[in-house]
């Protein structure tokens, strides 16, 4: 017989009789549906009920047969797995629904941004799945359909427009240059008419306000009372303050606050652009509302060649000029020769030939280039004037000589009185003081009204000599020359100049004085 301390047993089967499993073992048996009813996991090996916790024989093997459960208890144990499966199914449904809700939120958040995920796989009317590239291609094709119908499928002139359309779909391709952030499809934007760059509405409004404020504070004396323009941040195209954007409109400007449509370009209304084409040809843009400049006009028109000699042919409106390669034959400005160039646009080239041409007054002839037919000789005109008494005293000129300068009201020699006399009579002097400024520029003539030039100024003024040492009163028209000699040293650095200052020309500078260094001992 074992001692008392050994009978109480050790381990997990402590104090439990054989054939009865512990509580954790029963829970594990209920969770595993493959375990036979009435057999506990501890009946086999190492989990029995002896004092060592290894079964009845002390080696981990049970020596007793499995205990059979009551039929009523057996039914309860068989219902436990079905209840556990129902709870697991309900948990699975809850997790699936939460995952679907999270996926929908992710799709909505990604759909609102300008990225590659904007165009998700969708199912068309025929039940076929279209990927991102397929949907994008459909949107681009629908935008360009009205244009390609006119060109017969030719998209050569649409390369620039296609680039703008592709940038509208690419992630990070469109960036606001003011805040340096990506432009999203659900944000209000404004497009510059000069460079077609997109900016956020709040950003461009703040930019315009700050630009006008800065310019007014620097240049405007009456601060804030002048309407200064504000420039585009990219191309510097100027807008007036009244052109500051206040509404979010589509590219063509027809629809305010365009709705977000996954089958249209971002910020587009989906209507025909209908803007006037540039250069103006009378036609309008046929594309759907689009970013960037309008493409060249695709209409077909009937036009003649550039020299207008050939029969009109149908050509694209954006490429109307064409040459028939025949000789132009238009008369050149020299009025003597015709243009020998092939059919061309614009003005003909200058005539390269040489011909005998008269001057504009018609007195002389000379051989000159036909490209410069207008030239002037160095003789007086000499044509008789309308009065019949005098001839034109102007140099060689074109046009009419005009009226006789001695006709009408004429002034006396000093210009103080006027009289109307025939052109053959001279205006008498008025007897008043001349008062014309004389050559000195300081005094006026004190003689009576006279013909001819005024005499030299004889007023006594104080003058200074050239060297600045002496002054003297003498007539204004004379120069004061003193007798002092120049004390400066000559270029040899040994001898003085000793020339009279009066003999040195007034425009030449006197030699600078050079000091001779003392001899070395």
TrEMBL record:
InterPro entries membership: NFX1_fam, Znf_NFX1, Znf_RING
Residue stretches of biased makeup (Low complexity): 79-90
Keywords annotated in UniProt: Metal-binding, Repeat, Zinc, Zinc-finger
Domain RING-type: 176-236
GO molecular function: DNA-binding transcription factor activity, RNA polymerase II-specific; RNA polymerase II transcription regulatory region sequence-specific DNA binding; zinc ion binding
Bias (Basic and acidic residues): 44-60
CDD domains cross-referenced by the UniProt entry: NF-X1-zinc-finger, RING-CH-C4HC3_NFXL1
Residues making up the signal peptide according to the UniProt record: none
Pfam families the record matches: zf-NF-X1
Cross-referenced PROSITE patterns: ZF_RING_2
One Gene Ontology cellular component annotation held by this UniProt entry: nucleus
Residue ranges, annotated region (Disordered): 1-120, 500-521
Family: Belongs to the NFX1 family.
Annotated protein name in UniProt: Nuclear transcription factor, X-box binding-like 1
